[in-house]
Write a structure and sequence with these properties.
alpha+beta, six-stranded mixed β-sheet, about 50% helix, DNA primase DNAg catalytic core, N-terminal domain, 26 helices, five-stranded antiparallel β-sheet, DNA Primase, Chain A, globular, Dna Topoisomerase Vi A Subunit, Chain: A, domain 2
């Protein structure tokens, strides 16, 4: 059993560990007034910050999930460690040598984490110094061929591992480090040889600029290690699934710009930063995964869809498309908009900077497209969409992608988008997606049946529904939906008996649609208006939305004219969607094949355009 930590040392650790600095290493904090700081809670998913830190009192508390405590409790929770391990972590961070009472050995040597970080820092300085030596000429030539001069090498701390085999170990042992410490740091192997030999190295730092490990590139043909890139092995401070190269340089810019650019290698990160894309990071020795996504989401400091961007750069080849598909299937890891930036020539960011200049790299990021659009369009390009059988084959190829989406709120949008690209009826696309779901036995079938399979539902029975997604009140694309519902909740008397002609199809977001369905189902029974709405569908998310709409600011004095403006704006958006879908279908339809059908669609298009103009005369408010 581990001995007890000396009480005096424990008090010193608490005193020196500023909670705002420790929490700030994991969560982007912003001033919230009254001396407090706020950010997104790292312990539960949320879209609006409810996590508060009070530096003066040394405590944190989340008003959303109830988690709270002091700096030690935070480290325990965030790192999933025991009390002693959390204290040891903080002690290493602030440079306190812990003393223990009798009671046995400890799971980790006191101060080992700090010693490993110190060894890594001195190794980084040693490697950087070696880059200027005569033996490092091939390394400098490699950097020069990639467009990086001495200034760039110094900015990123690039170094060179000598070819001798034991140079680093001897250097660090002369400065007081033991063989065991160097092995545990991943700098020296058990047999005494340096882990890195004859390679160009990049120090991998955390957000606080502590050196956690290294990435090394092969430059000599006779290198005994076959891998082109070699990374520090897993240590007590280096976990490859938890670190991102360039985060120390990009962290503040990621929080400031609410944007993160994901590239594939160290030189790509360098090229981006030197070109002005200062939010670029890369995974180290492993594929981008869920832990990386969670780390980035905390750095972005926001979980709302409209508030941040995660931009992946992929090669335009088959491997790049496969990587994009993998990210697409796990896209719910982000609360941000996910995009893809692909250079048509197939050049990676580093080569693009070399061949076309830094402006071309900035333009690459500027040309980003939504991830789902990139994946879907890549699937569709393999089919002849001018032929009926080609469109059907393309639909069947794309349907599994749609059915694989776990975020229910996105499925309907993807179906609508896919139907426009194919020039097919949305219902036909939905049916094919449903067949695909059934074929593969996926639970996602319930997502579609909940809202669309009215032919299988009993009359008068509410549709089954799982938990509804919480809509983002700041999503400008849904402003008309939210504003209309706010008026319905707070001033229902300003609407006509038929709610100014609104239907459920006017609401795109599933939760807004569900609330309007509850409005239509609300009876004249006991209770006030909001209580009757909630009684029609006692869903906790709808209850939260109702409360928000009832109290949130931003509404002027409600009149019948004002309600007409908002509902007309919403109906304009619906008609505009119908026009876009019909135009796409007309583009895919050959009038020589079915002239009557073509003429009917064209006549309907004319009617829709006329209806849109009529509604626009009423829709004069701020939502359009």
């Amino acid at each position: 059993m581990a001995g007890l930590i000396n009480e005096e040392d424990l008090a010193t650790v608490r005193e020196r560990s500023r909670i705002d600095e420790v929490v700030g290493s994991y969560v982007t904090l912003r001033r919230a007034g009254g001396g407090s700081l706020s950010g997104l809670c790292p312990f539960h998913d949320e879209k609006t910050p409810s996590f508060n830190v009070n530096p003066a009192r040394g405590f944190y508390h989340c008003f959303g999930c109830g988690e709270g405590g002091d700096v030690i409790a935070f480290v325990q929770k965030i790192n999933n460690v025991s009390f002693s391990e959390a204290v040891e972590f903080l002690a290493d961070r602030v440079g306190v040598q812990l003393r223990y009472s009798d009671g046995g050995g400890q799971r980790m040597e006191p101060g080992l984490r700090l010693r490993v970080l110190e060894a890594n820092q001195q190794a980084a300085e040693y490697f950087a110094g070696q880059l200027t030596g005569s033996g490092a000429l091939p390394g400098r030539q490699f950097l020069d061929s990639r467009g990086f001069d001495k200034t760039a090498a110094e900015q990123f701390g690039i170094g060179f591992a000598p070819t001798g085999g034991r140079d680093l170990g001897q250097h660090l042992k002369a400065r007081g480090f033991t063989d065991a410490e160097l092995v545990k740091a991943g700098l020296v192997r058990e047999n005494g040889w340096d882990f890195f030999q004859g390679r160009v190295l990049w120090p991998i730092r955390d957000a606080g600029r502590s050196v956690l490990g290294f990435g090394a590139r092969k430059i000599f043909d006779d290198d005994r290690m076959p891998a082109k890139y070699l990374n520090t092995p897993e240590t007590i401070v280096y976990k490859k699934s938890h670190v991102l190269y360039g985060l120390d340089l990009a962290r503040q810019n990621i929080a400031k710009k609410s944007q993160a650019v994901i590239v594939e290698g160290y030189t790509d990160v360098m090229a981006c930063h030197l070109s002005g894309v200062d939010t670029a990071v890369a995974s180290c020795g492993t594929a981008f995964g869920d832990e990386h996504a969670r780390l980035l989401q905390r750095m972005l400091g926001t979980g709302d869809v409209a508030g941040g961007e995660v931009i992946f750069t992929f090669d335009g080849d088959a491997a790049g498309q496969a990587a994009a598909l993998k990210v697409f299937k796990s896209d719910t890891s982000f609360g941000s908009q996910t995009y893809v930036a692909v250079e048509p020539t197939g050049l990676d960011p580093c080569d693009l900077r070399i061949q076309q200049g830094e402006a071309a790299l900035r333009e690459l990021v500027g040309r980003r497209v939504p991830l789902y659009q990139f994946v879907m369009r890549n699937v569709l390009t393999g089919y002849d969409l001018d032929r009926v059988d080609g469109r059907l084959a393309a639909l069947r190829a794309a349907a599994p992608l749609v059915s694989s989406i776990r975020d229910e709120s996105l499925v309907l949008g993807y179906i609508r988008e896919l139907s426009k690209w194919l020039g097919m009826d949305p219902d036909e696309v939905r049916r094919e997606v449903k067949v695909t779901v059934q074929r593969h036995g996926r639970q996602a079938e319930r997502k579609l049946e909940r809202r669309h399979d009215s032919d299988e539902a009993l009359p008068g029975m509410p549709e089954p529904r799982e938990s509804l997604p919480v809509p983002d009140p700041r999503d400008r694309r849904l402003e008309a939906e939210r504003g209309t519902l706010r008026l319905i909740v707070r001033a229902p008397e300003t609407f006509s008996e038929g709610w100014n002609g609104l239907t459920t199809d006017d609401f795109v977001h599933p939760t807004y649609r569900a609330l309007f369905e509850s409005v239509l189902a609300a009876d004249e029974g006991p209770g006030n208006w909001t209580q009757r709405i909630l009684h029609a569908n006692p869903d906790p998310v709808l209850e939260q939305l109702l409360v928000s709409l009832a109290v949130e600011p931003g509404m002027r004095d409600a009149t019948e004219g004002y309600s007409r403006e908002y509902s007309s704006q919403l109906r304009v958006l619906t008609v505009s969607r119908q026009i876009a879908e019909l135009k796409s279908k007309l583009q895919r339809t050959n009038p020589l094949d079915d002239r009557p059908a073509y003429d009917r669609m064209f006549a309907r298009l004319v009617n829709l355009e006329t209806r849109r103009k009529e509604l626009l005369t009423l829709a004069t408010g701020p939502a359009i």
